Amino acid sequence: MGMTTPPRTLAEALRARDDESLAGLLRARPDLLNPVPGDITQLATRAGTRASVVRALEHLDRFALQTAEALAVAADPAPYETLLGLLTGDGRDDGEHRDDAGAAIADALPGALATLREQALIWGEDDRLRLVRTAREILAPSPQHASPTGLGPTVAEATSGMSPGRLQEILAAAGLPATHDPVSAVASLSALFTDRARMGALLDTAPAEALSVLDRLVWGPPYGEVTPNPTPPVKWLRDHGLLLPVSTRTVVLPREAALHLRAGRAHRVPEPRPPAVEAVAERDPQAVDSAAAGQALLAVNTVEELLKSWNGGGPAILRAGGLSVRELKKTATALEVPEQVAAFWVELAYAAGLLASDGEADERYAPTPAYDDWAELPAQERWTALATAWLAATRTPGLVGGQDAKGRALSALGPELDRSAAPEVRHRVLSLLAALAPGTAPDPETVLARLRWERPLRGASVSPGDTTDLRSRVALWTLNESELLGITGRGALATHTRALLDTGPAEAAALLAPLIPEPLDHVLLQADLTAVAPGPLERPLADMLSALADIESKGGATVYRFTPGSVRRALDAGQSAADLHAFLAAHSRTPVPQPLSYLIDDVARRHGHLRIGAASSYVRCDDEAVLNEILADKRSVTLRLRRLAPTALAAQIDPASLLEGLREMGYAPAAESAEGDVLITRAGARRTPPRTAPVPVPEGPPVPDATLLGAAVRAIRAGDTAATVVRKDAPEASAAEPGALPRTTSAETLATVQAAAMTGSALWIGYVNADGAASQRVIAPVRVEGGFVTAYDHTADEVRTYPLHRITGVAELADDATA
Questions:
Q1: Strands 530-533 and 558-561, bridge-based pairing
Q2: Any idea what DSSP says for residue 622?
Q3: What mean pLDDT is predicted for residues 109-123?
Q4: How far apart are CA 245 and CA 192, in angstroms?
Q5: Average pLDDT over residues 89-110
Q6: Band (466; pLDDT cuts 50, 70, 90)
Q7: Cα–Cα dist 765/774, whole Å
Q8: Best exposed site among 482, 550, 566, 694 by fewest CB in 10 Å?
Q9: Is pLDDT of 730 > 50?
């Protein structure tokens, strides 16, 4: 596939590539594969579309982008030496632009050109480098807009609408010979600005104030506004062509003059090398792993506590989707964390598939059936499930509390929190941390600087008025969330996280397991109606204790407090006083305090004394005095009670409201069934239907695998053969016009196909499918019968059957066409 002559077009340059190079292009720019181009010409055309070029430019690092920008302001085509000069300068500012910087640029430039060439953004040999036209239109300056380098248009572009008389005045002021040919006048002025000696002599005659004006324009923007009566310095610059008019009130510094003032450099600060990620602290790796493991256990417990609190049905879903501000505040209070951190835990549970909508008419959030499976796993495996979901999630909790493009508030679990760049940024941040020595905590600012160098064009504002790019915001959130989740410890990447990134969840869980304390089967009861859990508890013990007591404080040791309400909650769940006494005696390393025993007996004695059922609802009690007390209480007015019998009251509200109302009055009623049995309410009964975790929003087309790349390259090569094949009936060495279908009569088509099937030769055919799409193919007919031809299709690399009536025409190939 090699070429002996330089390519004249991008298509010719791509055609000269080998299969591996073509696969590299499709891998770097997967949008070119949707759909697979029919031939090389289609591939080149698609690679030059604006949307595809913009996407490719966004994936360039800073120096590759600076190289493309330099090519955009150079003449087309540009030799390698010219490009290198635009990046290093002409050596007139060695004090500012040191020799070592020039050496670094010279070393990095071949790699940058290789990247641009691989992505089909440039083509041609080193002596004739060409930037694709669309990229030049995006990056090059125009008479109305400066380029990203801050350079303005050339003298020829800026003077394109200028009168010949005005050109003569500029030539005379600059001391150049007069000419009546506008082209010669522009060439003469351009030659002056690019001649170092003559340009230096001209600037030596400029007023000091004029040089100050040039200093303000030289690095961009190159445009300035002038009044009808400009100041003498501006008038001098305008008269000598150093400022050229682009409108009645706007002037521009031409590119040639700016490059002279810049000492030939297109960029003020070329950045051939990526900035290093610097450390702010060196910590003991074991201390880092211990801190991260402790935080990992806390993360698992926090998610479990969140979902337990929503076991009976969580908060209602907003009409527009998501969690209300009030419910988020309530969740933050329950978890004892700031609202932004609460949003992170809620979003993490959602991303892991542990939390979803229940789908009811009164839609609420609730745990999913997957939560029950997750809760049965060891702590280290629960952590790897959370960490894996976080790495892949496109949900960005850091946006909660901000505004969307229309000024609407972004809520937790809302529909507008997906950002497709988030997974790539998280992985990149963690890979930068992994490149540091174990125990090294990085400086966040240097991490952000490195990310900006790697993708300088990927920044996008998160909200109106926000000047911070999205990638930097996501990177900062990643560092914070990594610490919350136990990905890092004390700012440094943990060993189990390195294993998670390198080998997968199984190895990470194995490394994390020894750092997590074994669950305990006991607590320490205290006389002040509290219990202290000196570490994580076994799941049955933790579940029972959470029903019997309220968590008062968390940390290395968890403190539970027993209250009448918490004891009643355990009794409502079907436990008896004897069961509770036995449970505490079996799991306490200290004697059961007498106040706690009294509390349990007292609540149990009153529990169920009142019974609530459905009338709308009713209250019954064997003690007539208790019912008299309720009726006499002014707080019972809202319950709308009336006596039906000495031991029964009826209410006009539902049983649940009646139950809650009497509890607020200080009673301990129990609900009963239609048969008169006490109803037991068990925690954790409400679950959503089976749900899958939310699918991350992809960032553009997925990167194709090797199999797809190989098939695509073969199809493009075969299509190119069909499009450029030489026919026997064509003039010697002439090729078919690209895109033109062969045309023959039905009788000629049938005869030619039958002859090819007998001789085993290949044919070039035009084919129109059932959708009316036309294509060119190279086939080797095998069998012709029943109005169909069965042939090996070189284009598709498989055997296919084609209806003869859909073949527009056939042509035999030249003897060397398939060689």
A1: antiparallel
A2: S
A3: 95
A4: 18
A5: 75
A6: very low
A7: 11
A8: 550
A9: no
Peptide bond into 738 cis (omega under 30): no
Token duo for residue 393: 């999630």
Confidence (pLDDT) at 776 = 78
- The CB-side HSE value for 6 (13 A sphere, CA atoms) comes to 10
- The set of residues, in sequence order, having a beta carbon less than 8 Å from that of 554 and lying 6+ positions away, is 298, 301, 336
CA proximity to 681, closest of 782, 568, 795, 758: 568
The pair of structure tokens assigned to 598 is: 């009294």
pLDDT surpasses 50 at 565? yes
Distance CA 83, CA 128 (A): 11
- Neighbour-count burial of 77, counting CB atoms closer than 10 A to its CB (0-12 exposed, 13-18 middle, 19+ buried): middle
Distance CA 177, CA 200 (A): 18
pLDDT at 91 over 80: no
Half-sphere exposure of 341 (CA within 13 A, CB side): 15
Neighbours of 565 (CB within 10 A): 11
Q: Rounded to the nearest 5°, which phi and psi values hold at 683?
A: -70, 150
Phi and psi at 611, nearest 5°, equal: -125, 135
Helices then strands, each counted (H, E), the chain: 33, 25
CA-to-CA distance for 212 and 707, rounded, in angstroms?
Answer: 61
| Contact by Cβ (8 Å): 731, 37 | no
Q: Are 764 and 738 in contact (CB under 8 A)?
A: no
Take residue 149 and report the two structure tokens written for it: 């380098």
Between CA 769 and CA 774 the distance in angstroms is 7
CA of residue 487 relative to chain centroid, distance: 19
- Judge contact between 303 and 354, C-beta under 8 A: yes
- Counting Cβ atoms within 10 Å, is residue 304 exposed (0-12), middle (13-18) or buried (19+)? buried
Q: Which two tokens stand for residue 812?
A: 């035999």
Mean pLDDT of the chain: 85
Per-residue 3-state assignment (H helix, E strand, C coil) for 29-82: CHHHHCCCCCCHHHHHHHHCCHHHHHHHHHCCCHHHHHHHHHHHHCCCCECHHH
Contact, 296 vs 383, CB < 8 A?
Answer: yes
DSSP character string of 151-209: ----HHHHTTT--HHHHHHHHHHTTPPP-S-HHHHHHHHHHHHH-HHHHHHHHHTS-HH
CB-side exposure of 502: number of CA atoms within 13 Å? 12
Q: Is the peptide bond before 35 cis (omega within 30 degrees of 0)?
A: yes
Among 779, 781, 742, 744, which Cα is nearest to 759's?
781
Question: What tokens appear for 542 in the block?
Answer: 């933790």
Asked if residue 2 has pLDDT above 50, the reply is: no
Output the CA–CA distances (angstroms, integers) from residue 80 to 89, 129, 141, 196, in the order listed: 14, 7, 21, 21
Backbone angles phi, psi at 17, to 5 degrees: -75, 155
Q: Could you tell me which residues are beta bridge partners of residue 441?
A: 281
**608 closest CA partner among 644, 561, 637, 574:** 574
Query: Per-residue DSSP letters for 244-291?
Result: EESSSSEEE--HHHHHHHTTT-SSSS---SPPPPPEEEE--HHHHHHH
Q: 702-732 burial, b for 16+ CB within 10 Å, e for fewer?
A: eebeeebbeebbebbbbbbbbbbbbbeeeee
* pLDDT at position 285: 94
Angle made by CA atoms 776, 779, 781, in degrees to the nearest 5: 140
**Hey, what are 789's tokens?**
């031809």
Nearest to 42 by CA among 717, 800, 704: 717
Please report the DSSP string for 443-507 in residue order. Answer: PHHHHHHHHHHH-TT---BSSTT--SBHHHHHHHHHHHHHHHHTSEETTEE-HHHHHHHHT-HHH
